[in-house]
Amino acid sequence: MTAHEIDYRIFGEEMQFVEIELDPQEGVIAEAGSFMMMDDGIKMETIFGDGSKNDSGFLGKILGAGKRILTGESLFMTAFYNNLSGKRNVSFASPYPGKIVPIDLTHFGGKFICQKDAFLCAAKGVSVGIEFSKRLGRGLFGGEGFIMQKLEGDGMAFVHAGGTMAKKELKAGETLRVDTGCIVGFTKGIDYDIEFVGGIKNTIFGGEGLFFAKLQGPGTVYVQSLPFSRLAGRVLASAPRAGGKDKGEGSILGGLGDLLDGDNRF
Questions:
Q1: What pTM does this model have?
Q2: Where are the domains of the chain?
Q3: What would the CATH number be for the domain defined by 7-235?
Q4: Phi/psi of residue 165, each to 5°?
Q5: What is the 3-state secondary structure (H, E, C) of the chain?
Q6: What is an example of a Pfam family matching this protein (predicted)?
Q7: Per-10-residue mean pLDDT for the chain, 266 residues long?
Q8: How far apart are CA 22 and CA 82, in angstroms?
Q9: What integer pLDDT is reported at residue 240 of this predicted model?
Q10: Is 33 left (phi over 0), alpha (psi -120 to 50) or beta?
């Protein structure tokens, strides 16, 4: 194996965290902000690039960092190493309610494609790169643009699914249609494209967006019930307006209260 062979345990139900057990000289890479806690003896290091062993040279680091810029991530990642003789643990937490999904890349042909904000952490040696879409429709209407993240190597990686996670095994030619924001990731054998919902009523009054993600097997697809964009939209919609008071959202009293106190700005 080129990636470090790590052990792990996942704790919790709604707000999970993953505990990585590191043998001496083993390491794990993670996105900034996912760190939770670590044992004494773990060395934390900020690295430039995509975290793989292939970016050891200066040019490799530049290319790895460039990939991360295209996915909207920071130039840097964080690596954690066990520099002592015994086993040590380091833990990483979910960013919001959902499930942490362990991905053994050796079971998926060494490659897994995921939404750019789904990646949590991985064994040192796993490459975190970009996956370009070659289809114009997917790039323009897929919700994530032309670019998704790809995890490559032969080690363990961990991604986060918001809400409840569903795992779908698709046979050759079998098709699954999914809301574009609800995709967590899929294996390299999946054919991914965008499909127009169709129909005047569906387009104008459907409220579900104009496009589906069309995923065709063979391969494995992971789907989330609560993408972060949906969660953030609900929070923003429920937040009181600046300087306003909560008079009963969703009721007729809310609208009447605005009229009575003169808060009827248009």
A1: 0.77
A2: 7-235
A3: 3.60.160.10
A4: -100, 140
A5: CCCCCCEEEEECCCCCEEEEEECCCCEEEECCCCEEEECCCEEEEEEECCCCHHHCCHHHHHHHHHHHHHCCCCCEEEEEEECCCCCEEEEEECCCCEEEEEEEHHHHCCEEEECCCCEEEEECCCEEEEEECCCHHHHHHCCCCCEEEEEECCCEEEEEEECCEEEEEECCCCEEEEEHHHEEEEECCCEEEEEECCCHHHHHHCCCCCEEEEEECCEEEEEECCCHHHHHHHHHHHCCCCCCCCCCCCCHHHHHHHHHCCCCCC
A6: AIM24
A7: 87 93 94 90 82 53 54 72 93 93 94 89 89 57 62 94 94 92 91 72 50 89 86 73 53 48 47
A8: 6
A9: 73
A10: left
- For residue 184 the two structure tokens come to 């967590």
Residue whose tokens read 């057990």: 21
CA dihedral (13, 16, 22, 28) in degrees, to 10, reads 140
Q: Quick one: tokens of 244?
A: 């306003």
